[in-house]
Amino acid sequence: MIALDYAFCLKAGEAICPQENLEAFCSALGQTLNSLASDTRCQILLKCEQNSDWKQLAEIQGDQYELTLPSIEVKESTQSLLQKLLTADDHKYYSDQHYLMVPLNMRGEILGCLVISTNEEILDDAHAKNMLALLISGALDSHLQHQLLACEQAKHKNTEKKLVQEVCSQKGLLEQLHILHKISLRLWHAHSLDNMLHTAVYECIHALDFDRMAIFLLNSHTGLLRGTYGTDINGTVTNEQWYCTAIHEHYHAKTTLDKRRHITINEGCELYHDNKVVGTGWNATISLWDGDEPIGWIACDNLLSGTPLKSYHSELLKLLGVTMSQHLIQRRAQDDLKALNLSLEHRVAERTAQLEEANKRLNQISREDSLTQVPNRRMLDERLEEEWRRALRYQTPLSILIVDIDHFKQYNDKYGHALGDQCLTQVAEALSQVERRAGALLARFGGEEFVFLLPGSNRENAISVANRALEAVRKLEIPHGDSPVAPIVTISAGGKTTIPEKPNNQQQLFIDADVALYEAKNAGKNQAFVL
Ligand SMILES: Nc1nc2c(ncn2[C@@H]2O[C@H](COP(=O)(O)OP(=O)(O)OP(=O)(O)O)[C@@H](O)[C@H]2O)c(=O)[nH]1
Description:
This protein has helices spanning 6-16, 22-36, 76-87, 126-188, 193-207, 251-258, 313-366, 377-394, 408-415, 417-432, 459-476, 506-522; strands at residues 41-47, 54-61, 64-67, 94-95, 99-106, 109-117, 212-219, 224-227, 229-231, 237-239, 244-246, 263-273, 276-290, 293-301, 398-405, 441-446, 449-455, 491-498, 528-530. The protein is an alpha+beta fold.
């Protein structure tokens, strides 16, 4: 028989009270019960807060105990006994021949129940039961409070640790973003795309939280991925423009493209350089986009220092991708504009040159005789005006010679107009070779008449030119069967030399030269006369 009396309670109380640990508490209770009766079984049950189910917290048999919270359901028969306990008037305890159920009250509420089952008769000592319930409730309450406190403290510590980590991470990210912003400003000032890519790799590996970086650009027409700048295994920036691969051969690029993901990060993977494994660590591939169109990739890793991947890396690398994308888009637009401007400038220059050439030609044509290709009267008038002014200013001599083919009407009549044209062309060519001094000009004056303009030329020189002209035409030996002068085509020349005394009086020069020509014709043609 269990003497569940005051003495038992004292003994149990001694065992229980100093214990805060549930296991020690169970052990002490088991030993106490075992010392009273060997087949005693004891359960500590707890009532669920959510529903009215009961769960077993611990089972004690002899000096053995087992903590079973929270999985073990309480048998249905026990559940109904417990229900009786709850509905009992005094809520204090329930007992029958083999069970003693002592409610565990805590702060006025039934929190659990101690169930002692034995084959022995349990003495019905109300005072002892109450005392036992009080002791166990107190111990359990203290234990639970202690556990709760420990749990809360652990939670608090955990939260505090997380908070510190979060603050550190945020601080790290802020610092890195600040650096990224500075790098971005430097990229704006790059003088070319190539310079920008080099600057990006150099600045990022020196200032951001990773060791190596490489930038690849995609040619959307060929689908090929080309290297730009990267980092070797010593952390030196290298030119990797030789690198070219198809997208499908580039695993990371393909992954980001297929999944339209901006970034992939792999930890504990093999790290490569020049297609060879050079270590292990984390690496990341960040895709660069122009809207929906992929334009390139950035790869980075921690090969050199092994710096662990931080919680902010993903955010930092994403922003690096966005920053680089913006710079590439802007740079490409600038380069396209530059190329367009260059091509426009080139086309404008080409057109201008064509126009100048056309104008030059037009100018030439408008001042050239179409049949003989020597300067025409318009050109002669312009040049004579210029030379008249110069001769007037410097008071230098100026001569003109009017040359006329003798009996050209007869020539036309005999040989026809076409041969007449041919004769005119031959004569013009021969005359144009006669005087090569600077400023001298031979022009077709009209019909079968030509004029020599001879700036700086005195009368003697004019006579010399006239005689040479006569000789040059004779030398052509163009047959002229109907000429009473000679059997060949001949010319007559009349000239005038003057030093101008007043402006715009060049017309007088022609009048005088014409008089001289008339003299030459009158004197029998094939000769020259200079006034
Ligand atoms: N084939 C050809 N004949 C021309 C051209 N221009 C003028 N003539 C001819 O040149 C001839 C000039 O004749 P005239 O003024 O009578 O002079 P000429 O017969 O040379 O007699 P003189 O001057 O006194 O020796 C005319 O028959 C014109 O038709 C031309 O461009 N081509």
